Structures are given as C-alpha cells and as structure tokens.
Amino acid sequence: PDVIDGNTFTTTVVDLNPWVEYEFRVVATNKIGGGEPSLPSEKVRTEEAVPEIPPSEVSGGGGSRSELVITWDPIPEELQNGEGFGYVVAFRPFGTTTWIQTVVTSPDTPRYVFRNESILPFSPYEVKVGVYNNKGEGPFSSATTVFSAEEEPTIAPSGVSATSLSSSVIEVSWTAIPWKMSSGRLLGYEVSSF
C-alpha cells in the first residue's frame, strides 16, 4: 500500500512473486515529508507456487545425423516459483497426434537433443516446452516447427568440364546432383583448383 494510517502498525503486501526473498523498510511521513527509512526487515521468502511462465524462443534444428535438437531460453530463477524446477519437452513428427515427452531436470539447461536412428533427415517436428516444479506442472509454450538434422550430400556433381576464356579466366561447369528436399537444403557448390 502507498500510505498507511498513522495508527496502523501492520499491513499486507500483495502481488509479490512466489518463492522470492523480500526485505522491507518502513518510512514515517507527515505533512512536511518522509523521514529516514527503517533498517531492513529480516529476509522473508514467499511460498512456492506452480510455475506460470513457459520458456520463450523455442526453436532448434541442426545437429548430427539422426538427431532432433530443441532449444529454448531458460526461465530465470525469480520466475521458477519454487524448488524442483525443470522442463517438459514435448515433440511429435508433423502430422501425427501422439506427443513424445521427456523431462529435463536442470533449470539452467537451454536445450535437449533426441537421438534415434529412425529419425529421417530434415523432417519437420512439432515442438513445445513446458515447465514444472515441486508444486506441479505449469503451461507449455506454443508449438513451433523444428527440423531434424540434415544429411550431407552423398554424391559428387558429374560432367565437370573447364574451358579457358583468357589468360587468367577459366569457366567451370558441371551437372547438378539429383537432390531431394527431404535430405536438407542444398546451399551450393564448392569449386576448388589444384
């Protein structure tokens, strides 16, 4: 409260964050103004509560063959609302209905890597990350699409030929490799001379 009656010696402070330590000072005021603040009270921790805020910036991708890498921004300690804080990572292949869930027990961890030989390269997955602590499960982030790891090209371009155009220029040409988008994004070619 902003101002408390001069005959009142207790008050209730509301809208505090759960599981956070607070100190309080009291300042006496009159018509002229405020006096010096009191010494701080002992630290008092609010009670635990279920987490209310899911991780932000849920994303991912990359990694090695047969991996699905999921990343997020960790929740700061003052928003974890209690002990035993961790994350629930849920994902499923795009177009399916059953979520695969796993628990990440470290509150500072910003990622989870799912490894499985059955993961096809560059496959879309629906991903969301939730929160929990000793009081229960909090909300999940909104679902986002993350692609599994890409696969490196397994064949080389064919039909490579070179034609001299001048004393300092050679034109190199080749036949494009057959590429499936299901293997990843073909970023380009490297041309080297030796």
Automatic annotation (TrEMBL):
Subcellular location, principal: membrane
Q: Name one GO cellular component term.
A: plasma membrane
Q: GO molecular function terms here?
A: cell-cell adhesion mediator activity
Its transmembrane ranges are none
Domain of life, per lineage? Eukaryota
Gene Ontology annotations of biological process type: axon guidance; brain development
Q: Which residues form the Fibronectin type-III domain?
A: 1-49, 54-151, 156-194
Q: Give the span(s) annotated as Disordered.
A: 35-64
Return the Gene3D superfamilies for the record: Immunoglobulins (2.60.40.10)
The cellular location(s) given in this protein's UniProt record come to:
Cell membrane
Keyword list (alphabetical) reads: Cell adhesion, Cell membrane, Disulfide bond, Glycoprotein, Lipoprotein, Membrane, Signal
Any matching Pfam family: fn3
What is the name of the protein in this document?
CNTN3 protein
Native source organism of the sequence: Chauna torquata (Southern screamer)
* Highest classification ranks of the organism: Eukaryota, Metazoa, Chordata, Craniata, Vertebrata
